[in-house]
Please model this.
Amino acid sequence: MAQTQKECIFCRVLAGEIPGEILHRDDHCFVIRDIAPIAPVHLLVIPLQHYIHATDASPDMDVTLGHLMAVAREMAKREGIFESGYRMAVNQGPHSGQTVDHLHLHVVGGRALELEG
Ligand code: 5GP
Ligand code: ZN
Model:
């Protein structure tokens, strides 16, 4: 079941109600480390606005997605994984394993990754 904005973990981190170091913040998104990293670097790039899916009908969604990827690139440089490479992933809906219903871009690197199902 979709979480409401009030109980959304990422909105609560942004509001300072749940601890989480904000590594980057701008007018459109913020970045935190995943609480359960699957690799040495595992960041979440999260729009300030509580979109649920990347396919949410919104006139600025394409801009938002592009911005998340641009911020991911800059964070990858900051984290020292730009040259070695990294994965950007968005989970969407039940079969993807999406657990937080607030759009977020995973940025994962620092080790060689397998293609995982
Ligand atoms: P999803 O499975 O929805 O694509 O990814 C949600 C991610 O959020 C998971 O990788 C999970 O470890 C992470 N996560 C869940 N709760 C918290 C939290 O309170 N703080 C942080 N930093 N990450 C969280
Ligand atoms: Zn939210």
The chain is about 20% helix and 20% strand.
